[in-house]
Specification:
With 252 residues, this protein is an alpha+beta fold. 15% of the residues lie in helices and 53% in strands. The chain has a 13-stranded antiparallel sheet. β7 and β8 form a beta hairpin. The protein is elongated and about 65 Å long.
Length: 252
């Protein structure tokens, strides 16, 4: 009798495991879809599948594919790999999702600042953004830790000067190095990679959504006149060079 009960328990467990492993992603979406997350063209299971199109916080993604690891649920987190196309780029990352946090690792992506501006307040800024991050941690939807590199190409932005031109001005290419410190928050360094401006500086982004940028800049000999004039509104650097100091701060 005991052996029979053991076999029945084993068969029930196997049936339950198979049911969970083969649970249709389409059904799971209809049951558990979060507000603001729309998805269509779903195929496969909740653990391995794809979708033709999805929209997350006004950001459209295409050819979304996922491969999740069920055993990781024992630790209280959902882990796996996700990749998708964006309107003008792509994203590929390992992820680990907890109750209030998301950890992305081995994150690679490419998109335009115009597309990113649908979910991040960037204003009238244009350019291309490529991402290579060893780690990015979000808590309650806000980044609190990051390590890796960002590259901004063909950056163009309005000049913040009284009576200045309203058209976008090309500012060149930039490299941003993100450092993961012991305390929560994101910090790093940025520098130009060619263009009309020679720029270098540092920045911080706190969990309270406060940001601070400080740096030094000077125009290169071939810089447009409007850039040279804009720099005249900045104070001279304290190091006695012909560079100009700038500082931007606020809360997002």
């Amino acid at each position: 009798m005991a052996n029979r009960s053991a076999w029945l328990g084993l068969l029930a467990g196997a049936y339950l495991a198979a049911t969970i492993a083969l649970f249709p992603a389409q059904t799971a979406y209809h049951w558990f879809a979060a507000p603001g997350f729309d998805i269509a063209g779903i195929e496969g299971t909740i653990w391995r599948g794809r979708a033709a199109v999805a929209a997350v916080a006004r950001l459209g993604v295409y050819d979304l594919e996922w491969s999740l690891r069920p055993l990781a649920l024992i630790t209280g987190r959902l882990t796996g790999q996700v990749q998708a196309r964006l309107t003008d780029g792509f994203i590929n990352t390992q992820l680990s999702v907890g109750l209030n946090s998301i950890r992305l690792s081995e994150l690679q992506g490419l998109t335009s600042l115009s597309t990113l501006g649908r979910v991040v307040p960037l204003g009238d800024v244009q350019g291309l953004l490529s991402v290579q991050l060893a780690e990015l941690v979000l808590e309650d939807g806000w980044p609190v830790r990051a390590e890796g590199q960002l590259r901004i190409a063909q950056l163009a932005t309005p000049l913040l000067m009284p009576g200045g031109p309203t058209d976008l001005v090309a500012l060149g290419d930039y490299l941003v190095n993100l450092n993961a410190g012991a305390a929560p928050g994101i910090s790093g360094r940025f520098e130009d990679q060619g263009g009309p401006l020679e720029v270098a500086g540092t920045f911080t982004l706190s969990p309270s959504r406060a940001y601070d940028f400080t740096g030094l800049a000077r125009a290169r000999p071939d810089a447009p006149e409007e850039i040279i004039q804009a720099l005249m509104f900045l104070p001279n650097a304290s190091d006695g060079s012909n560079r100009r100091a700038f500082e931007l701060g606020g809360t997002l």
